[in-house]
Structures
1.
Amino acid sequence: MGAEALSGAGGARPRRSGAGSTRAGTGRGGTGAGGGAGRTGAGGAGSGRAGAGLTKSGKPRPGTGGYGKRKLEGKGPTPPAAMRPGHPAQRRASAAGGNESRDRRQGDDHGSSFSPTGPYMSSASFRSSGSSPARSSGSSGSTGSSGSTRSSGRALRGSGDSAEFVAGRNSVVESLRAGIPAAVLYVGTRVQHDDRISEAIKLAADRGIAVLEAGAAELDRHTGGALHQGLALRVPPYDYAHPDDLLARAADAGQLPLIAALDGVTDPRNLGAVVRSAAAFGAHGVVVPGRRGAGVTAGAWKASAGALARVPVARAVNLARALQAYREAGVFLAGLDAAGDTGIRDLELATAPLALVIGSEGRGLSRIVAQTCDVLVRIPVAARTESLNAGVAAGIALYEVAAVRSRLA
């Protein structure tokens, strides 16, 4: 009896000890360790089954997440850069595809109210008629003004810079009044509305421009941290023409070509002023270099007062080669230079196909471009005046050429 009682007591004590160890396991290991001990009973079996994701003491193994590395699955091979979302190569591929689809959509729609290619026939249709002056010149007509093959030059058609944003209430309202083509008007969510915001929303709605609300952080990101005052206008990239298109435009109108080319002009407002003068005096377009020169931006649209919708701007990869291609097509080149030998009113080439080349206000024409010109002309100014603004000089020269042609007509 004593032995049995002792045995029974001894058997009861291990059960109490097991229960105690379970509680102790719960206290030491937290919820995970206590749960493991409760499921596996009292000890040895639980530590054996927990080896995949738990330590011997019942704690989760660090770095495995409780599953073990055999449970992890690979993501497969790394996709090409053009297929990775957010990668620069993927963005370039998407932009190229969007430009091609946009060109196809615009193939039969040249009458858009704000399309810069609307007023003139595309160079593709002009070349199909067999009357392209650049092709009739023979030697370098297939090279084009960009200095590369015609097919690679055509790849530039429709390519523009990234979208721009006009920031600030006054700037946005003035841009909408001037008819600048815009895609989206962003209005701050927690800004106090005034007459300018109300007018901007009304002008955008009348023109079919989307109006979206945006937070302060989003407006700061779009405008690059500029003082937007809760209002920003997104301007889409400009569709540049090809330099040959300007000759095609003159041929379609049955007129002598008159083209303005800018060399080293970096202020978009000067570009807008030149385009405005070109529209006023009958020029057929403006050529700008692809690098180190102003492009069509929101500031250029604003300075042109809507003239960019009527006068095309062509972009050349190499301006000197573009001008050389014009020479081979029968167009004379006249560069504006303060040290020129011929006054603008004495320019006999005004009655011939002509391209006026305007340099920057500070450095003037570059050496290579000046050597390409047939003649250097000057605008007489007072002795105390060093130079004229590029936009002003272009306006004076275009007016004098237009005056000579009108007298002959």
Note: The first strand starts at residue 164 and ends at 167.
2.
Amino acid sequence: MAVESRFVVIRQGVEVETFMDKKAADEYDKMLDMADSLAEMFEATALDLDEKTREELCIYLAKNREDVLVALQAKKAKPVTTAKKVAVKSEETMPTVLTGADVQEQESVEPVTEKKASKPAAKAPRKTKANKDAA
């Protein structure tokens, strides 16, 4: 007999979502709490939003809270991680597949030559204690 643990998010007596791990269920519940708070805030404003639009907007803002905080300048944007940089770099260096028309067009364009980097200037010799005493 197999035993499964399930975590159910219940709102106003209605089962909303079921999760297999507690962390995901807690995060979803927290997101719904934020959406409820946002909905109350929007109800108190003079904005004329129908209920469905207000609900979708509140859930979108709650799901994307990190981006919202960055947009409000309440939080700094996270720097791009090395894994993302590597993925972007590998996409840039991937060869392009050309079709027949592209090949003809490519042949009419002069090839681009790369400039070789010049050698850096030689470093000045370090001053040693003997050199400093002599000066």
Note: Helices lie at 22-43, 51-63, 65-71, 82-93, 100-108, 129-134.
